[in-house]
Amino acid sequence: MSEAKISSPWFTNYGLPINKSVRIFAFPFSGAGPVVYQRWAKQLEQQGIELLGVQLPGRESRYKEKLIIDLKDLIQELATEIQLLPDKECVFFGHSLGALIAFELCRELRRRGAPTPKHLVLSAFRSPSMPNPNAELHNLDDKTLIQRMREYGGTPEAILSNPEFMAIFIPVLRADFKLFETYQYTQEPPLNCPITMLCGQDDRIVKPEYIVGWKDQSTLPVKTILFSGGHFFLEPHKQDVLRLLKDICQQHNLR
């Protein structure tokens, strides 16, 4: 029987049927919520794949909740919530901060002896063992932070130049930037699932050479795919990424 929705506030199925046999968890980038994957979910649902957007506190339907600024706390809560869902074979997809969350969540699930994803698809995040090569953003004053976001691209000017919206958006950005800028990698055995890394050829934030170290994070193949564009290459290459996700599900017989 299909259910109308996922009961946990941490995940959304966008009101789509959830009786599919395979599930993709999609982790958004800094400042974003699961709405960024809504169109993905609708398209994948037509191909028999369920996509659940991950909903962190402090944004969209959870905007009244306190933002989490410690990655360890976030991972602990996410791991507990994901274990409450009915077991299904799954794939994790994450972009930028979402890639780090997906990776650390996979490691936490392994520590707990819980089921782990069959495949990690991680986009636009440096090798976790590599120190952050960029200047910290979460301590910048508002004006400088907005200018830095303008330089990075990916955020419409209509948003950046709207003081009322930015008053809401900046605290979320700061919290998310702090999550990965204060991240401390701890050495653990490599994962036992394949990893596919996605990167923009012209990404100034996560340069292609920054992702080389991911090869040490799995005992199984780690593949890298380069796309034209910068840090926010996903939107112009959406169809390519969706085909990739579908192919990965088929490769693991998750259909």
Share in helix: 25-40%
Sheet of most strands: 7 strands, mixed
Strand content: 5-15%
The assigned CATH architecture is: 3-Layer(aba) Sandwich
Strand order in the sheet with the most strands: 1-3-2-4-5-6-7
The general outline is globular
Q: Distance between termini?
A: 17 Å
Mean pLDDT: 93
Mind telling me the CATH class? Alpha Beta
Which stretches are low in confidence, meaning pLDDT under 50 for 5 or more residues running?
Answer: none
User: Given the helix and strand composition, which structural class is it?
Assistant: alpha/beta
Topology pattern, helix = H, strand = E: EEHEHEHEHHHEEH
Number of strands: 7
Evaluate the radius of gyration.
Answer: 17 Å
The number of helical elements comes to 7
How many domains would you count in the coordinates?
A: 1
Describe this structure in words.
The chain has 255 residues and is α/β, with parallel strands linked by helices. It has one domain (11-132, 187-251): Alpha/Beta hydrolase fold, catalytic domain (Rossmann fold). It has 7 helices and 7 strands. Strands 1-3-2-4-5-6-7 form a 7-stranded mixed beta sheet, with helices on both faces. β4, α3 (97-111) and β5 (119-123) form a beta-alpha-beta unit. The longest helix is centred in the C-terminal third of the chain and has 19 residues, at 163-181.
